[in-house]
Amino acid sequence: MSIVLGYDESPGAVRALHVAIEVSAAFGEPLVLVYGAAAPGALGEEYTAHRDAVQEVGRTALAHAVAVADEAGVPTTVEVIDQKPAEALIEAAARHAARFIVVGSWGESPLRGALLGSTPHKLLHLSRTPVLCVPTEP
After folding, report:
1. What is the pLDDT of residues 117-134, one digit of tens each?
2. Is the pLDDT of residue 19 over 80?
3. 87 phi and psi, to 5 degrees?
């Protein structure tokens, strides 16, 4: 089993990283760090350049998370997946037999999350893997 974390360097994701490391260490399970890097639109030459740029941002963010996990002695796997974040996390959780998916929240209201389709909101409704949603600190 493993713990899957959606990570993008947002304040909520940074806090979720620390919780995910704590949970991974407590269960003695590896941490799978996932960045959903789907580029908008799939037409034209701009798509490839945009996709490559988004994936590079994801690799940089995940490298920072790996450094924090390494300091805590938690083994990691890194995945930059060319899907929207919720889809990427659900897929990674299935492939890695995840115990939990951990995500941070931005402190959005439930209505705003429902209307705009936040990743935590989508996961809570679509994931068959339990979701641990970590609020940002006040």
Report:
1. 589 989 999 999 999 999
2. yes
3. -65, -40
- 116 confidence band (pLDDT: 50, 70, 90): very low
Number of helices (H), then strands (E), in the chain = 5, 5
Q: What is the full DSSP assignment across 39-97?
A: PS---SHHHHHHHHHHHHHHHHHHHHHHHHHHHTT--EEEEEESS-HHHHHHHHHHHTT
Give the alpha-carbon dihedral of 45, 51, 53, 54, to 10 degrees: 150
Which two tokens mark 100?
A: 């939990």
Judged on CB neighbours under 10 Å (0-12, 13-18, 19+), 90 is buried
pLDDT digits (tens, 9 = 90+) for 59-80: 999 999 999 999 999 999 999 9
